User: Fold these one by one.
Assistant:
Number 1:
Amino acid sequence: MPNAIKVTLSLFVVWLLFAIWHVGAGAVQISATEVVNTLLGDSSDNEFIVMGYRLPRMLVATLVGASLALSGLLVQGIVRNPLASPDILGVTTGASLAVVAVNAMFPDVSATLFPFIAMVGGGIATLVLFSLARRVLNHAAALALIGVALAALFSAGVDFLLLAFPLEINISMIWLTGSVWGRNWTHIPYLIGFLLALLPIAVVLAYKLDLFALGDETAQGLGVNINNVRLLTLCVAITLACVAVSVCGNIGFIGLIAPHAARFLLGNRHIALIPVCMLIGGSLLLSADLFARILMPPTELPAGVMTAMIGGPYFIFLLSRYKHW
């Protein structure tokens, strides 16, 4: 556990450095000293930029990345599949399809309903996935390929909606690429509320997920109710992913990369993996949004493009590694 504390503190420092850099970088460059002083309450010429625009965007990127990472950790733990994550399995694409469909057909719908609409879409996508893949849940490559096929199907549905409702295309494009642009303080209460509500459940489930790694029969023999734990874990994971999608769109691969990186650093004990995984996920999306802003100024790339550039090759590597698993 001391090693876990050291790793967690180190990753927190990495996140903090990225956070300060993220708030200071942009069309108006703000020094790290001025950023820190402004956050501590000192008035400055750039106070509005820091407090009104960049700080909430930084917090949203962190919370969304942490939520996606924790969701991926729970999914991989419950299905014992190294290739499982909400985006790879089509869950986040299903959530995106639901949000785009409602947004296209009912443009006046309140944005406060988006998390719940996304949950419905993600839940339906999960039910479809497990009904099609019930015989190959423990076969990594097969489950991943079914998920990729479903994600392609849901993406085709999104494309159809964009063509059928062209007037809404500018609003709906965010769900295709994933972006933190334009996110503000109004989105943070949703993210913090759901994360604070679901994180304690994930912590309680951590020990049971460790037992799941030993196999269903062993876990059941040690007193774990297999069906209830699996259902609860999937519900928590889907909710986290869908809330993230409802705020920032379909940002891929964080739920795949962050759990692998956390296990590489600490092993397989979930109670230690949870904070490390969330810090890695938050830092990944934060850095992706940062580089998306500063690589091609004044053009700003969606953060989802940056995560896909990293996650795509990594997924291909994992798929080749686990093709006989």
Number 2:
Amino acid sequence: MNPLKYFFLIACFWVATVTAQTQTEKIDALVQSYAKLGRFNGNVAVARKGHIVFARSYGLADREFDIPNTQDTRFRIASLTKQFTAVLILQLAESGQLDLHAPITRYLPYYKKELAEKITIHHLLTHTAGLPDYTERDDFFTEISKRQYDHREFIQKFCSDTLLHEPGTQYKYSNAGYYLLGGIIEEVTHDTYANVLQKKILDVLHMQNTGMETPERLIKNRAKGYNYGPSGYSNAEYIDISSTIFSAGAMYSTTGDLLKWDKALFSNKLLSAKSTEMMFTPFSSNYGYGVGTIKSFVPDLKTEVHFVFHQGAINGFRSVMTHVVNEDLVILLLCNTFEADPNPVSNGIFALLHGLPYSFAGEEK
């Protein structure tokens, strides 16, 4: 899902203060209003300056066994995965194993040559390669996503379509670009993406509740994904997420682990200051490397506020993560009901924390 769609709703807020006790009670009441109407089901975490100020679970991880969501529940994080892919690419660039501005034909010898000679890694990272998004195909969710492919086969079949525009000229959000980045990581390291992710990030940060999902793997405390409609809840449709989404969105995690990730990302623990700055610098349509990034002047503050953010959506799951750089404030929501859009909840929490008007579920204008 394009991370920029909902974000502009909160880009011009001014800042006020609320007591910590009132914050906790009000955030809980706000989220409960959505949960009671089936419009949120999952975990919420808010952290300021590296310290968790709010963490609660809502609804059920498994509706057939009435197992509630807890702080240990693992959710698919969908396109939040792109941040991790971007960091792995930047780490390889820092070590001299690849050049961000080199054509990808240097790293993917099996890729369609006429495309690979035009597209650079920088284009893939910024969604400016001109590649169509294979998830927008009419047959993706009904047919393609239910089959198993090796990554090379999938790239050749579904990430090699005719370009929509010349690389570097326009922004077009595309999962194909981030799938290709995963393929490049595997080619350059001669290892699997999952192994590189584990060694270079997850082990370093002790993210023990995070990894890549595969159909055969048993994952303790994993939430089941659901749809919600007029007839109530139903199971989300099957998707072979490891082979058809891969490095564009196949990770699972917890709110606790993602707060570890956020803290490391903003403290240069994984990347140099130069690489981190590149990652958070918008190139086109307020997108950097794996994240949306906006510096917006807020009239009431008479200053510029820097937001770094992304959201995700995959069968049965939704996610949204926003970091307010000026305040070192993180708002994170992981949800295991696809129709339960977490964006209004996230925006409401932001408004509440800053003394702005907000609405409970069902009261929105």
Number 3:
Amino acid sequence: MPDIASREFDVKRAAFAATIGNMLEFYDFITYSFFATEIGHTFFPAQSEYGSLMLSLATFGAGFLTRPIGGIVLGIFSDRVGRRPAMLLSFALMGGAILTIALTPSYAAIGIVAPVVVILARMVQGFALGGEVGPTTAYLIEIAAPRNRGLVVAWQPASQEIAATVGALVGVILSSTMAPDMLQAYGWRVAFLLGAVCLPFGIWMRRTLPETVSHGEHVAGQVESSSHLALARRHLRVIVLAVMILASGTISTYVTQYMTTYAKNTLHVSPSLAFTVSLVSNGLQIIGAVLGGWLADRLGRKPIMIWPQLVVLVLTYPAFLWIVRDPGAWSLLFGFGILSFIGSLPFTAFYAAFTEALPQNIRGGVFATIYAVAIATFGGTAQLVVTWLLHVTGDPLAPSWYLLLAAAVGIVAMSLMPETAPVKTGEK
């Protein structure tokens, strides 16, 4: 096995192998939100369009219920057994769930069994994804040289955005080449199966990863018992702030992913334009995530967290006002694109800061658990909350209210996070 301490391995290849698995898992998880309307019609027939969509989104939310369990189980597993076994297990579970959803017959064909199977598959997906992010982020921090940690860790959120971009691209192609009835009948299944085709490659890539957790030696980050109390207090503060920041980022991410459905159902634009907006927005978030990591290595974690978040807070309502008043291609692409790009900058810096603040022997488990709890609480409900707000108020600006609240909470917590960047702390 390659020696992590002496860097006798290709960091770029290892980072790619870790994050391509992460990307494939997020592709299938996010694809569900893109095709929420079509999946609702397939598995959750209801008396109204609103009822069918809400049942579909509730099933999307079911995947978040098991995320904390997956975060705890697979996160601790990664700390005790290793990062690579945990990442392989989460990937295999996700693959089985993907195939199950893609191949389950409709409600019209097998009745109540169809939604039950889909809900169970979503719960398995949630368990797998809950245990994915913590070990992967810990792994990226551990293979990176201190001066490049932000940039290497940037591929965690960037891989998620790559997944969303590919999902949106698939949506654009399918919605442009298929009639609406074909898209509803089986087009969304094609999108899922395209992700499943990549599963063997992802498993092979992850099997080649070098391990970063050594159980025969003193684990970096452990401390003497006399300092446990002070360390616990410090970590508790960081963990609380991390939950607040993750809540902010999660709401922003999942409301953004919901914009495909929002554009189709609320603004009544064509499906192809709706998917194009998601494609452009997610593509810009890839650039923003990588740029955020690069800047965080050079300027510090906190400046890259705080200033872009402040800009998002200022621009969110005007951008939505423009989009709602003139829901054309230019306003949608530019408005959502700018918010997506600027909003993606702070969270790479946060990923690096939070992971660096945790000792290695608890890093995977704590990050996975906190991430999964925040995602389950706020990500699993974000799209339901937005749909409900739109329904009860009838105001197409309702998503901006939720985003503003999330951005405000995020900037307060970011301003209180400790600075961990080697360029600021002097670590080499």
